[in-house]
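DM from R.C. (forwarded with permission)

"hey, sorry to bug you on a friday — could you get me a structure for this? deadline for the figure draft is monday and I only need the backbone to look sensible"
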Amino acid sequence: MAVAVVGLAISVAGSLQPAALAGMAVADGKVAIIAGASPQAIALGVTANAMLQAAAPSLDGRGGGKDDVAQGGGTNVEGIPAAFAAVEDLIRQRTGQ
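My reply, with the result:
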């Protein structure tokens, strides 16, 4: 499952310009997070790793990766809305929107 999600993130991030995405899933009471960013998004300062680092504290989680793809996890399922909000804030800050 994780491999398929990573592949999806790479595919979507590579096909939309610029594109940044973050997805989360819950399994066994834990949160998994994946993020992806296109080269154009990276040029704007929106990296997959930055999105993951923004989301992780709300999930009581951690993770990492590269500018184009990052993944991690956490234990605070209730933190998912705040994690998405943190990613949105990061994107708005870095793109000036």
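R.C.: lifesaver. The two ends are 34 Å apart (CA to CA).
me: no worries. Residues 12 and 47 are 14 Å apart (CA to CA).
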